[in-house]
From TrEMBL:
Keywords tagged on the record: Aminopeptidase, Hydrolase, Protease
UniProt entry tagged with the keyword Hydrolase: yes
Name of this protein: Xaa-Pro aminopeptidase
Organism: Jeotgalicoccus halotolerans
Classification of source organism: Bacteria, Bacillati, Bacillota, Bacilli, Bacillales
Cofactor(s), names only, from the UniProt record: Mn(2+)
């Protein structure tokens, strides 16, 4: 499998006896194991999944490419003794995922090499199986947005909308939301991460919904903005500027661009209308097992986009005291450009 080829390359490059993987997302990606406790130890010759008795059957079934090793005692104590028994001396570990206690346990007995972000880089290019699951998560989000437009009405609270939206995603097969759903109406639309509150949605409000579904471990992340009752000329102008920036990004971003070059496509449009200072976040980010992954589509991002990367395209404008607009689609980078994975309407809808 390609992912294990890349792990082997990492082992060779860093001259490692083993790679220790403890992050739940990286553990799942490499082994398919979905249990809540465990670790992977991967050597040039063997792959081991270490976990406790609760996951013996599950681990053996899910992690077919790994040998299940039954943990005795605490996980980190057992990992240390297990690696000693295999004569492992130089180990690579996820620098951003191993806590101080774990590091303290292994640093004196092994030569440890922090590998921050290295496994995440292996996850950058999605397999066909991953894309299929992501596509289903996107379909759930799309269908849920179309549904919620028939549900929302003046007088509801943002929290009521959130609860109904998440319940509908679950009905469609989601295991749950992929992050804390944002429902930001009226002046709260100026908050890019304005999670749902008890604010009542009023006539004349613009409402931003930023939400996503988890489907069999993979995330979607979509944003739509609509009006209730009516929309002011200023907010309609802002909507149209954001939509223009988003559509231009979808049309022009392609493999070979850096994250900063991609970000500039939308940012230049928004700046041209005088709203540059009101677009304070990056254009997008990668997603997959996590809703926020590499690569970043940001002003300082030097990572080059490659076919098979999944990225969001989500420009926005936020005006304090007035409101805001964000429009977001999920996409996959192809040889010829971006392929959209979300398709729900972006026409300015008034409920």
């Amino acid at each position: 499998m390609i992912k294990f080829d890349k792990v082997q390359q990492l082992l060779e490059r860093e001259k490692l006896d083993a790679l220790l993987v403890m992050s739940s997302y990286n553990r799942r990606y490499l082994s398919n194991f979905t249990g809540t406790s465990g670790a992977l130890v991967i050597t040039p010759e063997r792959r081991y999944l270490i976990s406790d008795f609760r996951y013996k059957a599950q681990g053996a079934e899910q992690a077919e490419a790994f040998e299940f090793v039954l943990q005795q005692g605490s996980l980190i104590d057992f990992i240390a003794s297990f690696m000693e028994s295999k004569n492992i001396k130089r180990i690579g570990f996820e620098g951003e995922h191993v806590n101080y206690n774990t590091y303290s346990k292994i640093k004196d007995d092994f030569e440890v090499v922090p590998l921050t972000g290295e496994v995440e880089k292996i996850r950058l290019i999605k397999t066909e199986e991953e894309v299929d699951l992501i596509q289903k998560a996107c379909e759930i989000a799309d269908q849920s947005y179309e549904y919620i437009l028939t549900y929302v009405k003046e007088g509801m609270t943002e929290m009521e909308v959130k609860n109904e939206l998440e319940a509908h995603m679950t009905k469609l097969g989601a295991s749950g939301p992929s992050f804390d759903t944002i429902v930001a109406s009226g002046h709260r639309g100026a908050l890019p991460h304005g999670v749902a509150s008890d604010k009542v949605i009023e006539s004349g409000d613009m409402v931003t919904l930023d939400f996503g579904a988890y489907y069999k471990g993979y995330a979607s992340d979509i944003t739509r903005t609509f009006g209730v009752g009516s929309v002011s000329p200023e907010m309609e102008e802002i909507y149209n500027v954001v939509l223009e920036a988003q559509l231009k990004s979808l049309e022009e971003i392609k493999a070979g661009m850096t994250g900063s070059e991609a970000d500039a496509v939308a940012r230049d449009v928004i700046k041209s209308y005088g709203y540059g200072e009101n677009f304070g976040h990056s254009l997008g980010h990668g997603f997959g097992l996590e809703v926020h992954e590499l690569p970043g589509l940001a002003q300082k991002s030097t990572m080059t986009l490659e076919p098979g990367m999944c990225v969001t395209i989500e420009p926005g404008i936020y005006v304090d005291g007035l409101g805001g607009v964000r429009i977001e689609d999920d996409t996959i980078v192809t040889e010829t450009g971006l392929k959209k994975l979300t398709h729900s309407s972006k026409k300015l809808f008034i409920v």
